[in-house]
Amino acid sequence: MIANVTNCCTTGFTSSLTFISITDCRLLPISKLKSKMDPLLLCMEEEEKTKPVKECEPETDATKSHPSWLISNVYSASQWIKARDYLGVPRPRDFRMTTFSIPALDKREILVEVLCWSVENYMREFEIPPGSPMVGEVIGSVVASRHRDYKPMMLVTCAAGWRTHSVFKPDESRVKAVRDILDFPASVYLGPLGMPGLLAYFSFLKICKPQPGNIVLVNAAAGSVGSVIGQLAKIKGCTVIAFASSRDRCAWIRELGFDYVYHKSVTVSAALARQAHKGVDFFFDCVGAEFTKEAVQHMKRDGTICMFGYNSCYARRVRMDAARRCDPYRMLYMRQARVQSCSLLDFQDRFDEAETQILDWMAQGKLRYRETMFEGFHRLPEALNALYEDSSVGTVLVKSDQVDDLSTSLIQL
């Protein structure tokens, strides 16, 4: 049951079309965290004022396992593992919760307690072997550190997956400190300021390079990626034709100002013949199958298709290799189309630029978002299943029940 809904790789095809498939905070409820940490936390502020800054404590027998300046007394954690291959939509029975021991921190490592988990379609597509932990982006709080740049109680984004705690070496993995964004909750770093927003930003603005008056077709337009693409298109003066799978989702994207909004039951060809009789310039596809077969016929000669997923195939009771065989893009290869690839990580040196621009549009009210929020680590499988139900809208998230809110107000120790 969904808790509440709140407002708040690239493969290319040109023979005439270009086909692009894109693969690939501080947050602190102090009362909750302090109750779980060592009493040393209470005097840390005074110690910080008097002690010189060190990269880490000396490596002695006394500090090797549990340095006295670490503030976490957590020695084990929980995780969700994939119990078996999916057959259709992921179900709670496809996952199993287990516990694991948290190792002692080595030099320049940090321990992160997860406060909010993202749930995305790629978790269905990603090849996760049974028995392996689930993957995913999270918002977390540093609860122990042997890295001078990551102090306890800093908020970070990282790929901890479906775990309550995780150890990282920031110098070797993608861990990013979250800045204070005032009126917005930290969860937007898993939506418009996270992977979905960055994917929309770079695929549309930097790869497609739209011009005013372009016709943009978006399916799954109420999702975390599609809703941002549609809004970017409106910001750039394009006409947006959007499809969604429920009345609530259609109502939401109408609020966003998309020009033509259709329920998935509407015939794609009929809608495009009426609203895009000269052809579609850009098609952002998260659905595949029959929708794509119809939409491709309405592309302009030099149009661009960006493929993000196979939503229509995920719900079928077939294994992933069979689901891929139903993908209509396979037909494009028969036409000897030229294929090019691009990863979101090709733009990682420009993430800050994108984040600043997206946040500015959000502050101006030009770019809005919605979240479907579950509460409690135990609800992660339920949240993943909700992606394929018509009642979820926008970014689907799971918030830890150990925190009261997701404020990014800066905390000075």
UniProtKB/TrEMBL annotation:
Q: Where is the Enoyl reductase (ER) domain?
A: 88-398
Catalysed reactions listed for this entry: 13,14-dihydro-15-oxo-prostaglandin F1alpha + NADP(+) = 15-oxoprostaglandin F1alpha + NADPH + H(+); 13,14-dihydro-15-oxo-prostaglandin E1 + NADP(+) = 15-oxoprostaglandin E1 + NADPH + H(+); 13,14-dihydro-15-oxo-PGF2alpha + NADP(+) = 15-oxoprostaglandin F2alpha + NADPH + H(+)
Q: Which InterPro entries match?
A: ADH-like_C, ADH_N_2, ER, GroES-like_sf, MDR_fam, NAD(P)-bd_dom_sf
EC number of the protein: 1.3.1.48
Q: Name one GO molecular function term.
A: 15-oxoprostaglandin 13-reductase [NAD(P)+] activity
What GO biological process terms does the UniProt entry carry, in alphabetical order? prostaglandin metabolic process
Q: Which UniProt keywords apply?
A: Oxidoreductase
Which SUPFAM superfamilies does UniProt cross-reference here?
GroES-like, NAD(P)-binding Rossmann-fold domains
EC class, as a word, reads oxidoreductase
**Pfam assignment, any one:** ADH_zinc_N
Which SMART domains does this entry report, sorted A to Z?
PKS_ER
The answer on whether this UniProt entry bears the keyword Transmembrane reads no
Family stated for the protein in its record: Belongs to the NADP-dependent oxidoreductase L4BD family.
Protein name listed in UniProt = 15-oxoprostaglandin 13-reductase
